[in-house]
Amino acid sequence: MFSASTIGSGSNEISPIMTQTQREALFDLLSLSIYADAHVSLAEEDLLKQAFVKKGWKSEYPKNLFIDESFARAREAADSDEAMFDYLNERAALFTSKGVQQEACDILKAILEVDGETAEENEFYSLFVQALPMLK
After folding, report:
1. Where are the domains of the chain?
2. For residue 33, what pLDDT is reported?
3. DSSP state of 51
4. pTM for the model
5. Dihedral sign for Cα atoms in the order 67, 29, 103, 98
6. Is 118 exposed, middle or buried (0-12, 13-18, 19+ CB in 10 A)?
7. Which of 62, 94, 97, 124 has a CB 3.0–4.6 Å from the CB of 25, allowing a cystine?
8. Tally of helices (H runs) and strands (E runs) in the chain
9. Residues 6 or more apart in contact with residue 132 via CB below 8 angstroms
10. Rounded to whole angstroms, how far apart are CA atoms 73 and 52?
């Protein structure tokens, strides 16, 4: 699992419990999160590319192409509050177990903390947590 310290130290292992679809959804959310404060930090974007997708990618779809398309989707979703909320909810709905939800929260929080959290990033994180499916 990532923490702010393990991401910074070069750890890039994603838990094997996360499916490829969940990995892709998490990357989409991470891409969107860097637009949350209308300040795209190169540190956030670089960390996202390096730390997250390096390992655990189990798709025939090329990583680099997915990354580029994910950033494009995030930019489009960030154009309006409604689009961002819908995008966030669609992806959050895919995290259907307690372990995967915790891992997604930890990774997202660590990425947001890289350049110091803003009020907008805190709000984004809170919206993500609220959007996660309730577990029985």
Report:
1. 4-131
2. 86
3. I
4. 0.79
5. negative
6. middle
7. 94
8. 8, 0
9. 92, 95, 101, 104, 105
10. 18
Q: How far is 35 from 77, CA to CA, in rounded Å?
A: 9
Mean pLDDT of 50-75: 80
Count of alpha carbons within 13 angstroms of residue 27, beta-carbon side:
31
User: Which pLDDT score, from 0 to 100, does residue 39 have?
Assistant: 66
Instruction: Specify whether the CB–CB gap between 1 and 101 falls below 8 A.
Output: no
72 Cβ contact partners less than 8 Å away, ≥ 6 residues apart: none
Helix H or strand E encompassing 30 = helix 20-33
Q: Residue 23: exposed, middle, or buried by beta-carbon count in 10 A (0-12, 13-18, 19+)?
A: buried
- pLDDT of amino acid 6: 37
If you average pLDDT over residues 68-80, what whole number do you get? Answer: 92
Q: What does 85-123 look like in DSSP terms, one character per residue?
A: HHHHHHHHTT--SHHHHHHHHHHHHHHHHTT---HHHHH
